[in-house]
Structure formats: structure tokens, C-alpha cells
Design goal:
Mean pLDDT: 97
Oligomer: single chain
Strand content: 15-25%
Number of strands: 17
CATH topology of the domain at 50-290: Aspartate Aminotransferase, domain 2
Largest sheet: 7 strands, mixed
CATH architecture of the domain at 50-290: 3-Layer(aba) Sandwich
Number of helices: 12
Helix content: 25-40%
CATH superfamily of the domain at 50-290: Type I PLP-dependent aspartate aminotransferase-like (Major domain)
């Protein structure tokens, strides 16, 4: 008999009654150190007092009116994002998946309005993840994502990650854009080097096409800058955002330049919930905290502590771990043993991590994780590694 919750997840046998900072607590009082942060969502940890205050204050006044009317908190958050980024305009969604859908529509409408309706193809990369919608799985293109869900939405050209020649060969008169994650999350914490991001910007400019960055997982301070592409000193035309911007409340966004968004006029897109007062109040509070030089400097300091600890773990358990990847507090432990075994051993050691492709374990802690919790994390990760090593 099918369960009442559609069984599309292999869920761990854990549930949590409450959370505080970097900790999740079960009904029976066990405390788990959360190094997954809801898959890079809980950017300020659990039950952060400023986010709780922002949400409850807004909830006491107004929950929802729809985008038929002006929404002051939405305008406030949009202005904040425009001030902080390359963007001239913002559309709010409820998730990264919805942000992908709009990014695809925006690119195609742009070239349609330019009198080039044949330009519909978007180049994407092996190992990418852009959500679970029809456009998202077609963009990723992997068998794991697409098998059984055909016919797929056409208009995506997939090229290998990190190889230049196939990218150049993929260009045609139909090409509209390149879409890429500056740091692949699901794909195994694979970082695009800064010089390659600069090269992609030049590549798109030389061919008159648009550049889309998917910063759903690597954005909002996760890399040590507000957005990961800032390390390369370049700007996209369109950027997808979600996860960390809501700190646990579901909100996403598409940020765009005025030119890239020029085709999106009244009636071309919409969202019932997107940018509602609750989500925007929380998103503004998140950015007020994260988007400061002091906070981002501390993210980089904590990232150095994490990376140092991971290198020590690799040296201590060379049969379990093989290396470390990533940037800021978006780190990956490459495993020699099964990454799933490492994650499962973590449950027994009461530390939570997230698996990814390439046999990688993701470490995505709250951006404000205290130093003492980082030290505790390595005590628990060491216990998990010892369990895996003993089993082999």
C-alpha cells in the first residue's frame, strides 16, 4: 500500500522536534549537529531570533494579498537586492525550481522580441542540477533526472563539465544562453574556476548570448561572498536565487539586468505566492545580516577552520577520505569509502551531512556556526569516520 506521503524520498529514520542555532533536537532529547542546514537553506541556523521576530511581526499584520496589489515588503526586498547586486529588476518565486522556469522563459522571450525567435537553445553542463520541474530536468539532462519523464522539454544542449572545445562546438544560430552553477552542489561540490567564469562571460558576449548563473545553492553568502560569481569579478545577465535567502522560509528570486528582462512585460509571467509579505519580510532580515562585510569576513574565517579540520580528517583517515572541494561554507569531502556509509555513520555519531554525486559528502553548515560547534563537528565526524574505517 502506498504511504500517505508520496514515497519519492529515501528518508533517514530521524525526525526533529525543535532546532536552535546549528543544532536539531529529537523528541527524546538527542542533539544532532546540523552540517546540512536543510541543504544550504538555514543560512542563519535554526530559530534565529531576528528571523523569528521578522516573521512573527509580519504574521501579526498581513500574510497574503497576491500580486494583484502593491506589496511594500516585496518592494523593500527587491530594492535591497538591486542595491546589492548587478540586477536592475527582481521577480520573486517560491523555490529554485520556479526560478529556473522563469530564467528559461526570460531568455527565450528576450530573443523572440529581438526578432530572433530561432534562438531558443540553452547550453548546460554535465552534473548540473536546476530543479525538478520539466525545464529543470531537461536542463540537467542526466538519466537519473529524466528517465521515465519524456518527452522532455526541448531546447537544451548538454556539454561536459570543464572542457572548452565541446562548449565552443555547441554554439549555433539557435543558441540563446549558457546556464551554469558557479559551484555545482548536487553534482559534487565542483567549483568553476574564476578564470573559466570570466571566459564564459567573454564567450557569451562574443556570441551575443545571455549568461545565466544558478546560485540557488551557492549564493547568499555560502561561498564567502554574497554571490559566488563575485569572486571572478564578473556579472551574469540573469541569476537564479533561493534556498539561503529565506533562511528556512520558502522564497526564491530571479535577478536580471534591464536588458535581459526587457521581454517580461505585464501578463508574461506570474506567481500566486511569489513575493508574499511573509517571505519578503524574512528575506530582508536574512540579507540585513548576511550582506555585510563583517559577516562575510567571518564566513571566510570559519571556512578556513572547516577546511583545516577536513584536511586533518583526510590525513587521519586516508582509506575513508580522498580530498576536499568547494569554497566558503560550501565544502565537499571526497570519499574513498561510500559517501552514503559516511552519511549514515554520521547519524550514529549525531552529526548531519548531505550526500552528493562524485562520491562526495556535502558540508553546508549555518553561515554563523560558532567556532565551538565547528570543533564539535570534527569530533563527531571523526567518530563517524572511525566507524566506516572499522567496517572496512
Amino acid at each position: 500500500m502506498i504511504p500517505s506521503i508520496l514515497p519519492t524520498y529515501n528518508r533517514a529514520p530521524l525526525s526533529f522536534a525543535s532546532g536552535s542555532g546549528s543544532w536539531l533536537i529529537t523528541d527524546d532529547g538527542r542533539r544532532f549537529l546540523d552540517l546540512g542546514a536543510g541543504i544550504a537553506v538555514n543560512s542563519l541556523g535554526h530559530a534565529h531570533p531576528e528571523l523569528v521576530a521578522a516573521l512573527t511581526a509580519q504574521a501579526g499584520k498581513l500574510w497574503h494579498t497576491s500580486n494583484l496589489y502593491q506589496i511594500p515588503s516585496q518592494q523593500k526586498l527587491a530594492d535591497q537586492l538591486v542595491d546589492l547586486t548587478f540586477a536592475d529588476t527582481v521577480f520573486f518565486t517560491n523555490s529554485g525550481t520556479e526560478s529556473c522556469e522563469l530564467a528559461v522563459k526570460m531568455v527565450r522571450k528576450y530573443f523572440y522580441d529581438k526578432g530572433q525567435p530561432e534562438r531558443v537553445e540553452i547550453i548546460t553542463f554535465e552534473g548540473s542540477f536546476h530543479g525538478r520541474s520539466s525545464a529543470g530536468i531537461a536542463a540537467a539532462g542526466s538519466d537519473k533526472m529524466t528517465k521515465g519523464f519524456g518527452p522532455l522539454l526541448p531546447g537544451f544542449v548538454h556539454v561536459p563539465f570543464g572542457l572548452h572545445d565541446p562548449l565552443h562546438a555547441a554554439i549555433s544560430h539557435k543558441t540563446a544562453a549558457v546556464m551554469i552553477e558557479p559551484i555545482q552542489g548536487e553534482g559534487g561540490i565542483r567549483q568553476v574556476p574564476d578564470h573559466c567564469l570570466k571566459g564564459l562571460r567573454d564567450f557569451c558576449d562574443s556570441h551575443g548570448i545571455l549568461l545565466i548563473f544558478d546560485e540557488v545553492q551557492c549564493g547568499v553568502g555560502r561561498s564567502g561572498k554574497l554571490f559566488a560569481h563575485e569572486w571572478a569579478g564578473i556579472e551574469p545577465d540573469i541569476m537564479m536565487v533561493a534556498k539561503g535567502i529565506g533562511g528556512g522560509f520558502p522564497i526564491g528570486a530571479v535577478l536580471a539586468s534591464e536588458d535581459a528582462a526587457s521581454g517580461m512585460t505585464a501578463g508574461t509571467h506570474g506567481s500566486t505566492y511569489g513575493g508574499n509579505p511573509l517571505g519578503c519580510a524574512v528575506g530582508f532580515a536574512v540579507l540585513e545580516c548576511v550582506a555585510t562585510p563583517k559577516f562575510l569576513m567571518d564566513v571566510n574565517r570559519k571556512a578556513s577552520l572547516m577546511r583545516q579540520g577536513l584536511e586533518g580528517l583526510i590525513a587521519q583517515f586516508p582509506d575513508v577520505f580522498d580530498g576536499v572541494t568547494g569554497s566558503g561554507l560550501m565544502l565537499g569531502l571526497k570519499c574513498k569509502a561510500s559517501n552514503i556509509d559516511v552519511v549514515n555513520a554520521g547519524y550514529a555519531a549525531e552529526v548531519l551531512t548531505v550526500p552528493a554525486a562524485e562520491n562526495v559528502v556535502r558540508l553546508l553548515p549555518a553561515l554563523n556556526i560558532p567556532d565551538e560547534d565547528i570543533k564539535e563537528a570534527f569530533r563527531r565526524l571523526e567518530a563517524a569516520a572511525q566507524t566506516v574505517q572499522s567496517a572496512h
